[in-house]
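Hi everyone, sorry if this is the wrong subforum. Our group has a chain we'd like a structural model of before ordering constructs, and none of us has done structure prediction before. Sequence below.
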Amino acid sequence: MRPIAALRRWQPPRAAKAIALALACAPFALLAIDAATDRLGANPVEAVLHRTGDWALRLLLATLAVSPLRRWTGWQWLLPFRRLLGLAAFAYALLHGLIYVVLDRGLLWDDVVADVLERPYVAVGLTALALMVPLAVTSTRTMMRRLGRQWQRLHRLVYAVGVFAVLHFLWSSKLDRLEPLVYAGVLALLLLSRAPAVLRAWGRVAGPGPCDTRS
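Answer:
Right subforum, don't worry. Here is the predicted structure as tokens:
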């Protein structure tokens, strides 16, 4: 328990965010190196699609894990990294979507629409990306102040994004289902960790029940 207690008092150095940003950008840098050196395999577009999608989901789950981990451990220093992780997840998701539309479908919108109608994993993937846009746009402190309580309600959409993103990965995986099932299990645990807070919030909104005799 001593290491955990020590981490509660630990203050990250000023360069911590820069280091975290560099780590978040590292997969993209490795992807760019592989593309430049022709090491993406026989289907480079598919390889880029998979790698950007994988990291979008990993960073999204890391973003969702910040609050419960902070609550369980008392590590308050984790909170400033949540926005960075969320924006990094959006950047990879946006890149994933652009690669699909531009390189995979060649900006042929009829093909994109046909995919949305015929392939559920495309529909839920694009839905997840669309829901991430307002979250990214309103992630600044200025927007937090401007929206007030509405900001928190809006950013609860991140849980829907997580569900859609996991479904996108699960439904698009044709052979190996182990990895998407692991991510689905992680998301389920993160959503369950929010259940007590959600129930308390519902209780405050609903007020005392008709059988509540407390004064």
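For your construct planning: Residues 205-215 have pLDDT under 50 and may be disordered. The chain has one domain: 2-6+15-190.
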